[in-house]
């Protein structure tokens, strides 16, 4: 080996050793979030959290501060008695119980019915199954407002107004979006599970109830929570189908909290709205990981 070859190797070796380190530095630089990322996150946080903070501040003001111009952001003195008035000026607990009953009943039924339909589309064989599944997905494109009047007429003719039976029937009818979630998840499970159960003599209902349903816990929880929050926050259906004694908390908040002249007291109404929103926020805070798991699981197989 000549001295020229040795000197060439000596010059190339350090450069070769430095290359992986440079690549690591570049890779780490790409992974580090930039200042614009933090700015975007803060802007989105303010966009979503801002209205709720404004509502809380409004609930701590007096009616004069609410109507004053220019608008004051912070109250001069926090009016915590607005929350007490929101609880006592109407049967807040009773209406909250109505909302809880309606939302829980609907959520349990629609979760189970959607799981059963999704299982059928995922694991059972039938002619025209794919075409029927596309029809089910197409119903998600229909705005709910279009079916509102026919639904009201139908329930009125069969005598179900001022009852909670419409939510029971809606729950038994399944939800296209939930059916899609369950179908995607059940399609990703190995076929050996049902084959082994069939060999042991299990029927399809037993396979669904004892094998597939327990495995779909993230989807079950997500379906229940989405349905619960949607029903808890629904205003149109209770206002259309229920009278004031049987209605839910969403409708009652807009109907009460008036002064002797019949004018709405906005600060007490804001306090009631804050207490109305808090349960949904707590539910999402403790169950947000299931939303992520369900989205990942439902996207495994198309």
From TrEMBL:
<feature type="transmembrane region" description="Helical">
    <location>
        <begin position="167"/>
        <end position="186"/>
    </location>
</feature>
<keyword id="KW-0812">Transmembrane</keyword>
<protein>
    <submittedName>
        <fullName>Lactose transport system permease protein LacG</fullName>
    </submittedName>
</protein>
<feature type="transmembrane region" description="Helical">
    <location>
        <begin position="207"/>
        <end position="232"/>
    </location>
</feature>
<feature type="transmembrane region" description="Helical">
    <location>
        <begin position="92"/>
        <end position="119"/>
    </location>
</feature>
<dbReference type="InterPro" id="IPR035906">
    <property type="entry name" value="MetI-like_sf"/>
</dbReference>
<feature type="transmembrane region" description="Helical">
    <location>
        <begin position="268"/>
        <end position="287"/>
    </location>
</feature>
<feature type="domain" description="ABC transmembrane type-1">
    <location>
        <begin position="96"/>
        <end position="287"/>
    </location>
</feature>
<keyword id="KW-0813">Transport</keyword>
<dbReference type="GO" id="GO:0055085">
    <property type="term" value="P:transmembrane transport"/>
</dbReference>
<dbReference type="GO" id="GO:0005886">
    <property type="term" value="C:plasma membrane"/>
</dbReference>
<keyword id="KW-1133">Transmembrane helix</keyword>
<feature type="transmembrane region" description="Helical">
    <location>
        <begin position="35"/>
        <end position="60"/>
    </location>
</feature>
<keyword id="KW-0472">Membrane</keyword>
<dbReference type="InterPro" id="IPR000515">
    <property type="entry name" value="MetI-like"/>
</dbReference>
<dbReference type="Pfam" id="PF00528">
    <property type="entry name" value="BPD_transp_1"/>
</dbReference>
<keyword id="KW-1003">Cell membrane</keyword>
<comment type="similarity">
    <text>Belongs to the binding-protein-dependent transport system permease family.</text>
</comment>
<feature type="transmembrane region" description="Helical">
    <location>
        <begin position="131"/>
        <end position="155"/>
    </location>
</feature>
């Amino acid at each position: 080996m000549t001295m020229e070859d040795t000197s060439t190797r000596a010059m190339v070796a350090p450069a070769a050793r430095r290359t992986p380190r440079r690549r690591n530095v570049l890779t780490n630089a790409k992974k580090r979030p930039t200042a614009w990322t933090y700015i975007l996150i803060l802007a989105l946080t303010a966009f979503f959290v801002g209205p709720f903070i404004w509502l809380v501040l409004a609930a701590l003001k007096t009616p004069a501060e609410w109507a004053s111009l220019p608008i004051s952001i912070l109250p001069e003195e926090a009016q915590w008695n607005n929350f007490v008035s929101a609880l006592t000026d109407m049967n807040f607990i009773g209406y909250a119980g109505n909302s809880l009953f309606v939302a829980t009943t609907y959520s349990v039924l629609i979760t189970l019915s959607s799981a059963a339909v999704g299982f059928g589309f995922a694991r059972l064989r039938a002619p025209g199954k794919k075409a029927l599944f596309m029809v089910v997905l197409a119903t998600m494109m229909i705005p709910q407002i279009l079916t509102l009047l026919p639904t009201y007429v139908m329930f009125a003719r069969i005598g179900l107004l001022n009852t909670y039976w419409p939510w029971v029937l809606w729950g038994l009818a399944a939800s296209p979006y939930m059916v899609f979630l369950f179908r995607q998840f059940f399609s990703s499970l190995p076929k050996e599970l049902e084959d082994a159960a069939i060999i042991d003599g299990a029927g399809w209902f037993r396979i669904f109830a004892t094998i597939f349903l327990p495995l779909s816990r993230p989807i079950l929880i997500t379906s229940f929570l989405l349905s619960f929050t949607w029903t808890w926050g629904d205003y149109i259906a209770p206002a259309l189908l229920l009278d004031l004694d049987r209605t839910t908390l969403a409708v009652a908040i807009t109907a009460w909290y008036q002064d002797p002249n019949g004018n709405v007291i906005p600060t007490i109404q804001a306090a009631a709205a804050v207490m109305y929103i808090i349960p949904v926020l707590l539910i999402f805070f403790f169950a947000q990981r299931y939303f992520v798991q369900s989205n990942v699981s439902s996207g495994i197989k198309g």
